[in-house]
Amino acid sequence: MTRVPLALAPLVALGCTAGPSGVRPSPEPTPLVEPVVTITSEGVSPQVLHILGDTGITFVNRDARAHELRSDPHPAHTECALMNLGPVAGGETRITATITSGQGCGYHAEGDPASRAFQGFVLAH
């Protein structure tokens, strides 16, 4: 039987999983920030994003090249379909569908799903 630390129990109850390399959200809901993720040649920032629910997530690609973002787990991409953005061109801004309160969504860069720098998790409160 697998024991889940009490602090992570709410995340497990939500069905939250780790990304391909294990990116996990912090169990603490603070700080809640604007629903914006920036993509650069170095990765995504912030990698763990706590937001108020019932809003979309804005992805801003500040890299010169496109990055294809997909939902975890790889290669199924089924955890959170709204994160299946496909290619986000350099300089492009893309907004996801609404993420509802209590929903957790892991995502990764399809071109390199094991790259921890391009993995992220959004948790809506």
Tell me the Rg in angstroms.
14 Å
Number of strands: 9
Q: Which range best describes the helical content: under 10%, 10-25%, 25-40%, 40-55%, 55-70% or over 70%?
A: under 10%
Distance N to C terminus: 29 Å
Shape: globular
Low-pLDDT residue intervals, each spanning 5 or more residues: 1-21
Structural class designation: mainly beta
What kind of sheet is the major sheet? 5 strands, mixed
Strand order of the largest sheet: 3-9-8-5-6
Structure, explained:
By secondary structure, the chain is mostly beta strands. Helix content is 4%, strand content 31%. It contains 1 helix and 9 strands; from the N terminus they run H-E-E-E-E-E-E-E-E-E. A 5-stranded mixed beta sheet has the order 3-9-8-5-6, with no helix packed on it. Strands 2-1-4-7 form a 4-stranded mixed beta sheet, with no helix packed on it. A hairpin with a 2-residue loop joins strand 1 and strand 2. It is globular and about 30 Å long. The N terminus is likely disordered.
Comma- or semicolon-separated keywords:
125 residues, mainly beta, 5-stranded mixed sheet, 4-stranded mixed sheet, 1 helix
Short note summarizing the structure:
The protein is mainly beta. 4% of the residues lie in helices and 31% in strands.
